[in-house]
Amino acid sequence: MKYTKPPLTLQEQLEHIQNFYHIKIKDKQKALHYLKHCNYYKLRGYWLYYEKRGIQASFEDVINLYEFDKALRDLLLSYLERIESSIKSVFANYLTTTYNNPHIHLDASIFGNQKYHKEGIERLQESFIKGDEIFINHFKEKYDEELPPLWVCVEFMTFGELSKWIRNLNIHDTKQIAKTYNIKSPRVFSSILYHLTEVRNRCAHHSRIWNHSFIHRFEIPKKYKKFLSFQNFKLSHTFVVMNDLLTVMEPKSQFTKSILHLIEKHSIDTKEMGLDETIIKLLKDNNV
Question: How many CA atoms lie within 13 A of 216 on its CB side?
Fold first, then answer.
């Protein structure tokens, strides 16, 4: 079947929202402004929340939810950047000092899947060749090597690539790195990084995050199995593990406080994020 619907002007979009979806619009000029700059289908994802629940919503309600989600993405990105930086540093420092080898990443023997290792090296080489950062150019000018030391290479790895390197690392070394963040299981640690990669990518690409159902779900740590469900996987799960990681890195982290302040500012129903009183208390108390 071919798509035959004609494009609608902003005014026609506004009328469709009012008449078909029964969304009240108090300020039509403001609504037209958002439709012009935010795209009808991006906003559609937010009023769909109200529609599916049979809740009568105004366009202002939709915009409030949209603005909350946008602010939440910005906040998560800020803290995920800190987590990524920390893990890159720990990963590079641990491996190079443990094996007394600046180029330990070239040693396929400490990694599980040789094909994945080869592909990882090729991606690093491609990034290194194309890279134009000051530290990359400095290394190119001064040394004639296949790749720089690991502590340089991690700086041009994406979070997703870092996650893949750690997932392919042998269990013993992964376990030692995980211990830095008070995580006992290397499998749990790897799965958390895989999940945070998805979270980071959704935030970076301006995708809805606040009530999203994630594809990459991490294995629930034993200490949280009473509070978190793998089947009912919500953003609350993300908050809990990010809070744990950040507490190691920044003992006085404002992560939880910032999240709760944002929720209060926009009067958001926390149940859609899986945040009940128990988990909120868990975050506040930082029960690790």
Answer: 17
